[in-house]
Design brief:
The complex is a heterodimer of chains A (about 150) and B (about 100). By secondary structure, chain A is mainly β. Helix content of chain A is about 10%, strand content about 50%. Chain B has a three-stranded antiparallel beta sheet with strand order 2-1-3, with helices on both faces. The chains are: A mainly beta (about 150), B mainly alpha (about 100).
């Protein structure tokens, strides 16, 4: 079982995960907003900028539009993996991750979308402090001891 | 889906699953520790950026770029640091 948290300031739903992009030889842990309204998962470019990653490498990736309440924005699409873990297992998902345009990033956080969430059973009860994700399947599962 | 060998190669290149899991567990611990302290930090450091690197010691700066520079100058790993903006007026999001 994965356990998320509610942000103290705005009560948004959060879960930590690790983004791995082999093409860019990149891995980093980051906080994700849990977003059942998002078709797919996406990341803010500051996760790359912080580490001094050459943004040209990101901007060489294929682009596509994604749509939100404010209209459409351009994202760069990378093949990669998202990892999550509970006390017993690490779960790896192969994803087509959307990276917000580094030249004009929206002021929204990185999100876990339905590409991941549709494979979990989610219990959300903010009034009871409950945010749980029962992992129904993953592309790869390892037993871990941390 | 990628072949099993490709997945295993990607995980190995990232340091192996135990390394990934250990780093994620520690990142999660610090992320939640910072979240627990958020209300107090919003009072003492509003509109600043804060990082909690691996040593749990908080670092503050007026911009994300300055925060990264401070971490780098202090020799603290950036890739594993928990970073967030201390916004006293939380955004209303519709995403």
């Amino acid at each position: 079982m994965l356990y998320g948290t509610f942000d103290t300031d705005d009560a948004s739903l959060n879960l930590e995960g690790t983004l791995i992009l082999p093409q860019l030889q990149f891995q980093r842990q980051t906080n994700f907003l849990v977003d059942t309204g998002a078709t797919s998962s996406s990341v803010h470019p500051h996760v790359f900028e912080d580490l001094g990653i050459d943004l040209q490498a990101i901007m060489a990736l294929p682009t596509s539009p994604i749509w939100g309440i404010g209209g459409s924005i351009t994202v760069y699409n990378a093949h990669g993996f998202l990892a999550f873990q509970d006390s017993d297992n690490a779960y790896l998902y192969e994803v087509a991750i959307s990276i917000y345009d580094p030249k004009n990033p929206p002021d929204v956080p990185s999100v876990i979308g339905r590409d991941i969430l549709e494979r979990w059973r989610m219990v959300y009860a903010k009034a009871h402090g409950v945010l749980e994700f029962d992992v129904l399947d993953a592309d790869y599962t390892w037993g871990v001891s941390v | 889906m990628a072949p099993k060998a490709e997945i295993e190669a990607a995980v190995a290149a990232a340091g192996g699953i135990e390394h990934i899991a250990r780093n994620l567990a520690d990142f999660t611990r610090r992320s939640r520790l910072l979240n627990d302290r958020l209300l107090q930090l919003l009072k003492t450091h509003p509109n600043e950026w804060v990082a909690m690197p691996e040593d749990d010691e908080l670092v503050f700066a007026d911009s994300r770029g300055d925060l990264i520079s401070k971490l780098r100058e202090a020799g603290k790993p950036i890739s594993t640091a928990v970073i967030r903006f201390l916004n006293p007026n939380p955004r209303v999001l519709i995403v």
